[in-house]
Amino acid sequence: MLLSPLQAKKLIKYAIEKEFALFAVNADSPAAIRDCLQAAKEAKAPIIIETSMWQLEGISFGAGDPVRGIAQYIAHTSLLANSDEFMEVPVLYHTDHIRGPQAEEILIQAVKGLPIKGFGEELLLSPSTISLDAAQLTPVENIRILNTLIETSKECGREITLEMEAGLDGGLTTHEEAEALVMGVENKYPGYIAMFAPGLGNQHGFSKDGYPGFAADNITQSSKQMKELTGRDIGIVLHGSSGLSHDQVREAVACGLTKMNWSTDGIIVRSAAALEYYKKYEKELTPGQAEFKERAMDNGQGQYVSETFVPVIKKMIDLLNGTGTAPEFMESIK
Q1: CA quadruple 216, 221, 222, 228: dihedral, nearest 10
Q2: Is 263 helix (H, G, I), strand (E, B) or coil?
Q3: What phi, psi does 257 have (nearest 5°)?
Q4: Which of 69, 82, 121, 134 could form a disulfide with 56 if both were Cys (CB 3.0 to 4.6 A apart)?
Q5: Pick from 260, 323, 309, 317: which is nearest to 44 by CA?
Q6: DSSP secondary structure code for residue 129 in this structure
Q7: Is the pTM of the predicted complex or chain greater than 0.70?
Q8: Which residues does 142 contact at the CB level (< 8 Å), separation at least 6?
Q9: Superfamily for 5-332?
Q10: Are 69 and 95 a contacting pair, CB within 8 Å?
Q11: How far apart are CA 139 and CA 136, in angstroms?
Q12: Terminal CA-to-CA distance of the chain, rounded, Å?
């Protein structure tokens, strides 16, 4: 089931209480979205499907138009997540790296609701949770835009649940920086920030040498600070998990991690499986061969990649202690 912003907030709180981390996958194709939901179903776990600007503008969705892309992405995810097949899977759709001069307007439209029209009717779709990529923003701009999104939600009467980012690739976020950011929103509009993504000594993208500056106990300190500042639990988010060892991830969960973003490693898995498929069936992919259509059509390659990708997602969910956590949560929101 695709979660509303308020249901998403409940899921974040549930993850904090049950001491597991939500797995957030950047899925850049309809096939990848379905594979994530399939893995979550088999693991009986929640799943976060998230997109960055490059997915929204990609050929599978917006084809250069990110607003159309986010509408199509939510519609597709909703169709799958609310089907009988996946209705018992808590699915949260999250905006990830929305950056550049269009970012504010894209997110304002997402908060207001993205229209899907047909047969004389109009349905408005919105993300479950929203974050703003802060990499190209000053702290003042970061705070202003998030406050604008909250103001927009209040004006149009639509709920919003936020993740706030700090300078994720700039090393460790200091307590002073974190306080200035979070309280810049909290002092004006308390209760809207459900997750905070500080710099934890790692970076986005793949690092074959890992991240020697990463220390999981920074997560504990960040979580403690958020509770002291706001009086409530706020989930701590790990961006840039590619390059961290499984032991480091386990330690992060033990220290209170609530959400882990995962993109580069997923792209590597899917592209490697696709390459293997085309090499394995190269002869059959020659026109005139008896099995040409079977091998050449999307379902052939898609099924092959899925058989590799789904087990990897399940292992990552288990690494984050998420296996088996969905049924109790789904019962709690009935």
Answers
A1: 160
A2: coil
A3: -60, 140
A4: 69
A5: 323
A6: E
A7: yes
A8: 132, 134, 164, 165, 181, 184
A9: Aldolase class I (3.20.20.70)
A10: no
A11: 10
A12: 12
- Residue 276's identity, in one-letter code, is E
CA distance 83 to 33: 14
Tens place of pLDDT per residue across the chain (334 aa): 999 999 999 999 999 999 999 999 999 999 999 999 999 999 999 999 999 999 999 999 999 999 999 999 999 999 999 999 999 999 999 999 898 889 999 999 999 999 888 888 888 999 999 999 988 899 999 999 999 999 999 999 999 999 999 976 667 899 999 999 999 999 999 999 999 999 887 777 666 666 667 888 999 999 999 999 999 999 999 987 777 889 999 999 999 999 999 999 999 999 999 999 999 999 898 888 888 988 988 889 999 999 999 999 999 999 999 999 999 999 999 8
Question: What is the signed CA dihedral for 41, 258, 147, 10, rounded to 10 degrees?
Answer: 50
**What tokens were used for 199?**
């710099």
Distances (CA, A) of 58 to 30, 32, 54, 246, 286: 11, 14, 6, 31, 28
Longest dimension (CA), the chain: 69
Tokens 């995810």 belong to residue: 77
